[in-house]
Amino acid sequence: MTDRKKRIGILLFPGVEELDVVGPWEILSCWTQFFPGDGFEVFTFSFDGEPVDCAKGMTISPQHRLDHAPARDVLIYPGGRGTRSLIIDSDHLAWVRAERETTPLIASVCTGSLVLAAAGLLAGRPATTHWRSLERLETLDPTIEVRRGDRWVDDGDIITAAGVSAGTDMALGLVVRLAGIQRARQVRRIVQYDPEPPTDTEWVPDRDDPAGSWR
Question: Using CA atoms in the order 13, 149, 103, 51, what is the torsion angle rounded to 10 degrees?
């Protein structure tokens, strides 16, 4: 057990995608609560500390306001429609760059990687995002090696996950990195995470239709 708990902070902002937050939270909070001896804890925070209205209508109350939040060893940066304004917010991008200087590991989910790209954190790196935003990721920074087929991309001190549910997979990958494969297997068993989509149809992405098509 470490002398000081290492802390994982999950950022909340208006328009954040619910599962981008709750998926990683479920995995990481299960891990830290069932295995406190590993020396990690997880918390949520927002800039003003007020409840956040998410992309699909859920409201989440953060545990901390930014200026009172503990220092972070890991930052989880989720995605959602709220990132549309953040990628052009110079003050926010400056905060992201400053966070890079003080946080050893940053992991994004879905379109959270667009904000990291806009802040310059993904220059020359492999990365991914939601399939509908892959071209936007390329446009934001042409030096990024866009990994179109990967669920998540671990590039050492920065990890990017693809769309929404991929964040849960990425969080399990974090447990592997930080506590080992056996611990991740235990966490996966506790939350009974064994994806078996209840469909035998083939899904075909369609850029003109947000839901894609089925056949």
Answer: 10
